[in-house]
Design a protein that fits this description.
Radius of gyration: 14 Å
Largest sheet: 2 strands, antiparallel
Helix content: 40-55%
Number of strands: 2
Strand order of the largest sheet: 1-2
Shape: elongated
Structural class: mainly alpha
Order of helices and strands: EHHHHHE
Distance between the termini: 17 Å
Strand content: 5-15%
Number of helices: 5
């Protein structure tokens, strides 16, 4: 599973959600969605815009985390 480190990196760089939205030309609701759910599906274009605005590579913005094991009885 891919985890988007947007909130952590934005805070390190001093970006509020609004400032990041303006700097990246990414809709504020998209940024809010990623903040709430860092494993949300995001286009490569959006990742590229966010990384550029934050001054990092896309590789720095994402990390891979292991999938959670399925709980018995849930599918």
């Amino acid at each position: 599973m891919i985890y988007i480190r947007l909130k952590e990196i934005a805070q390190e760089k001093g970006f509020s959600q609004g400032k990041l939205s303006r700097a990246s030309d990414v809709d504020d609701n998209t940024i809010k969605r990623i903040y709430r759910n860092p494993t949300a599906t995001v286009t490569t274009e959006t990742l590229s815009k966010l990384a550029k605005a934050l001054g990092v590579s896309v590789h720095e913005l994402i990390t891979e985390v292991p999938d959670e094991p399925a709980v018995e009885g849930q599918r």
